[in-house]
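Practice problem: Interleukin-1
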Amino acid sequence: MFHLGCHPPEVPSAGQGRAPPPSPAVWQHHRHPPSFLPSSLSRSRSMSRVGGSAEAEGFSPCQAPTLQTKVFQYRLWDVNQKSLYLRDDQLLAGHLQGANAALEEKVFWVPNRAFEPTRLPVILGIRNGTRCLASPPKNSTTPALQLQAVDIRELPHTGEASAAFTFFRSYKDGLWRFESAANPGWFLCTSARGHQPLALSRSHDATHLLDFYFQLC
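Answer key — C-alpha cells:
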C-alpha cells in the first residue's frame, strides 16, 4: 500500500551509452485547441440545450438512471521529484519550492471500463477533472499531447471513442508508467531538465523520464 510522502526516495536515472532516442512528442499549445471529443458526447451536449415536444406540452421524459463515475484525486510527480504545474495552458514539470509549492496541479482520474481492465485504463485530468489530457492518433512522426476542456465523468460513457483520452497504467518497483491508448508504445514523460512540458516518448533514458510516483492525496 502506498503511503503519501512529499519527498519520495530518489530513483537513479537510466544508464548511459544508449543510441540517441527519437524526439519526444511536442505539447501542442493552442489558445483554443481543436476538439476531437467523441461524437456521442458532442451530440449529448447539443441535445441538452434543446427541449423536446413532450416537455413543451408539460410532460417530463422518463430517463433511466445513470451510474455515477467516481473521480479520484492523486499526486503525480516524476522520479526526479518534479511536480506538475500549469503555465500558459501547458502542463510543465519542475521543482516547486516554498510558496511555489501551492502551484502544483493535482491529478484527477477515473477508470475507463471501455477498455481491457487488466491494462488498468484511466482518464487523467486537472482542475477537478474539467481539463483532460488527450493524445489523438498521430498523423505525423510523433503524437501530440493536449489539454481538452471536457468533464472527466462523461468520457467513460463514450466507449472506445474515448481512446484519445485513455492511458494504460503499468506498475513496477513503486513506479508507474502511462501508455497512450491511441498511440501504442508512447508513454507520458518529463524532461530531465526542469520546467519543460509534459510530453510523450517511446524511449526511457537519462533525457526522457517515463516513470512516475502516483499516490492518493
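Discussion: Residues 72-216 form a domain with the Trefoil (Acidic Fibroblast Growth Factor, subunit A) fold (CATH 2.80.10.50). Students who identified this feature from the C-alpha cells alone can consider the problem solved.
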